[in-house]
Amino acid sequence: xxxxxxxxxxxxxxxxxxxxxxxxxxxxxxxxxxxxAGLRGRSWSP
Amino acid sequence: xxxxxxxxLLLAFAFQSDKxxxxxxxxxxxxxxxxxxxxxxxxxELLGQLSFNLSPAQLDAWxxxxxxxxxxxxxxxxxPDDMGTLSFRAEIVDRPFARMRAHRMSxxxxxxxxxxxxxxxxxxxxxxxxxxFKNKSTLQILTPEEYLxxxx
Lengths: 46, 152
Known about the structure:
Chain A is mostly helical. Chain A has helices spanning 7-25, 32-40.
């Protein structure tokens, strides 16, 4: 499963990624470490 | 070729104010040109985590905002059309269990490392949890910062 790598696809992908980043910045209450500890348990120890 | 762990992408999408974000962003920008990979297990873990905040339409567009935006290729145990021939027991039980016994590791960590190690061309695994993985894999384990320093 590979990216197409076309300029148009990359532009659209980055625009959508930016939207998600903006949306997530106002909705995430926990931290990366809390989120990863929830997913991986005791093995998350950065 | 570099394999990415879920945390690198989760940080990029969800935790903009994290102090690791500048290095994480610089890493993702640099690694883009090297055709980085993500295991199917990491992909599903990431989508599951983001499903709590994204709409169904946004989730449907994951190939755009993930693969195209970061030039990522998803790796599978076998080509997706050949998955019917995969040994479920070996992939989901035997290999992860052997790694858990040897290295004390979560199920997801074991699944991801097994697949990354068995994929031809993958030499490095990048994660902010590198300390946990060191000496537990045949791959070179690096944090995004270590990758940047190594390739500068």
